[in-house]
Amino acid sequence: MKKKLALLLTTLLLFSAAGCGKEEPAEENQHEIQTEFALAECGLSYTIPDAWVETENTNLIPVSFVNASGEIYAKIQYNYAPDENMEDLNNTDSSVPIEKLMTPIAEFLVVKTEHLESETAKTELALFNNVEELGVEGDFHFYFMTDYASGIDHFSSDAQKTFRELEKYLPELRDSIEISMPDEQAVIDAAEENGKYLNFITNTLEGDSITTAVFYDYDMTVVNFWASYCEEEGINELDTLQTFYKDLQKKHPNVNFIQVVIDTPNEKAEKIVADAYEEAGVTFTGIMPDQNLASWIMNNLNGLPTTIFVDKQGKPGDLKIEGIQDASYYMETTETMLQTVGKTE
């Protein structure tokens, strides 16, 4: 297996890294691997040691984010995973905990002065035995952290040897680091733009993995938002939506339909929805919101049910259908929106 090395730096607002499932490993790089990074949004530049790229049985998997309003402003963590763990890392159905499959070898952390005493920042700093404050730029404190406190006993003996070999080059990485004032406005602007899109890495109601990539194969996707408590209150149009979906498949196979059940995951809610789906003979996909999608819902929906029209990049059109409608109205509106949302590049 080829070694993996990339920095997937996102300015999406990530609310909770824990509980979101496995991080997706970086794609294999068919060209020269990038080792020099200048990240203006974070105020960091550094160079990955060549030995990290050249060492066998080494996969470096980054976990990173920038959040201008978070208690942690920026985090860039490089995780080591041996070749023998990559199959489980790539398998979303694997039951092996992610902390058993990869372990941080180094982390950069940027925290604003006002959040230094926050529980979130303290918890993150406590993950490592070696914590060095690199310096301060304005209100931003920079840290370089190594020696993960939980250790590497869960790795095989060969993997442990490789990890220790990689650690020998941490001083080289440390010497390459330069800090500067982060470009916070760029982060804010990017977050605002990203907030216009539906972004999610979550599960269907059946437990299968599903991501924003579900939009890519269609010219447009009709997305309906509903909740189990709507069923309990008699606000149920599942029969209508199933009829609409069946007609949509025949008339416009380039248009998809999915439903977001906003009060899942929750055992009681999932049982209510499963029974309702079975009674209505639902064959369309129902999904559970992750925290990114839940945030979008909070900021953009006035009530339930609501239906929107999303292009293949995940950007909703301006029109929303609020409340229950009949199947013919959904079809007519879909065909109208297909002329605008469905034609965007």
Account of the 3D structure:
The chain has helices at 50-54, 86-90, 98-101, 119-125, 157-167, 170-176, 184-194, 228-232, 238-251, 267-280, 291-300, 327-338, and strands spanning 36-39, 44-47, 59-66, 74-81, 103-112, 128-137, 140-148, 178-179, 201-203, 209-211, 220-226, 255-261, 285-287, 306-311, 316-322. The protein is of the alpha+beta class. It has 2 domains: 36-193, no CATH class; 198-343, Glutaredoxin. Strands 3-4-5-7-6 form a 5-stranded antiparallel beta sheet. A 5-stranded mixed beta sheet has the order 13-12-11-14-15, with helices on one face. Helix 10 (267-280) links the parallel strand 12 and strand 13 (285-287). Helix 9 (238-251) crosses helix 12. The two termini are 35 Å apart.
How is the secondary structure organized here?
Elements: E1 36-39, E2 44-47, H1 50-54, E3 59-66, E4 74-81, H2 86-90, H3 98-101, E5 103-112, H4 119-125, E6 128-137, E7 140-148, H5 157-167, H6 170-176, E8 178-179, H7 184-194, E9 201-203, E10 209-211, E11 220-226, H8 228-232, H9 238-251, E12 255-261, H10 267-280, E13 285-287, H11 291-300, E14 306-311, E15 316-322, H12 327-338
Parallel strand pairs: 11-12, 12-13
Antiparallel strand pairs: 1-2, 2-8, 3-4, 4-5, 5-7, 6-7, 9-10, 11-14, 14-15
Helix pairs in contact: 9-12
